[in-house]
Amino acid sequence: MADISDICYKENFKDKAIILAEKYSLKLSPLAAKQPYLHFSENPHIKFKDKKIISSFRSGSFANRIKNFQRESHLKKAIGYGGESSKKILDCTAGLGHDAFILALLRQNVTVVEKNKGLCILFELALENLPQTSYFQEAKERITIINDDSASFVDKLLEYDVIYVDPMFEDRGTAGRSGVMSLISDYLDDFTDVSDVLIGSKFNRLVIKRQKQFKQSSNIAPSFILSGKSINFHVFI
User: Which of helix, strand or coil describes residue 98?
Assistant: First the structure.
């Protein structure tokens, strides 16, 4: 799996770059480093293979999804959403944190685990760059970001009400994985579907987000499947 080792920065972003470099044990460079690296500026991004991964919660399709977060009916049903009640959710494949943030807007307490340092930082910065309103602040306070391998949490799954997994699909460039998600797949280069490990573990509720054409390889069938236009939620209880 590819990951950054350097943070490059514009001079007026040096102080924050230093903080992130120390937090994630990365090197600092005011000049372009060997790709992939994080470029910290007005528009922070991961640079790899002369491509860019940019994350913003304030514009684009995800901004529209945020505005309509209460319409996430399949996601609500998948986690056993109960209105004002809050569940303790472990997101084992945080990525850019889109689903985690929607869950936080739905008043769920979410611990996100992401092995890739670059993606952790983009998620962290996207949260910081949201408008300073109580509406967003409350959601941000419900999120804990951990840079680690989610497989190391196998023995802690029963501490959470819901385990949530959105694997990087093996069929690259297919429906539902265009744009930035296709870029992330290309950036990571190779990845392991942690859900194969989790299905055989002890948990209260496991939700796995899958493409419609996904074929189950595990001998353990889901308790039920919620079908959408291009995405299904496989729910194990």
Answer: helix
Cα(32)–Cα(204) distance, integer angstroms: 46
pLDDT at res. 219? 78
**What strands, in cross-sheet order, belong to the sheet with 37-40?**
27-29, 6-9, 37-40, 45-48, 51-54
How many other CB atoms are found less than 10 A from the CB of residue 27? 12
> Distance between CA 188 and CA 192 in Å, rounded?
10
Sheet with 162-165: strands ordered across: 143-146, 109-113, 88-91, 162-165, 206-211, 231-236, 224-227
In angstroms, rounded to a whole number, what is the distance separating the alpha carbons of residues 193 and 8?
A: 31
Q: Residue 178, Cα to own-chain centre: how many angstroms?
A: 16
pLDDT in tens, 86-113: 999 999 998 899 999 999 999 999 999 9
> Is the Cβ–Cβ distance between 58 and 130 less than 8 Å?
yes
109 bridge partner residues:
88
Q: Is the pLDDT of residue 171 over 60?
A: no
**141-150 pLDDT tens trace:** 999 999 999 9
Dist. CA 191–CA 208, nearest whole Å: 16
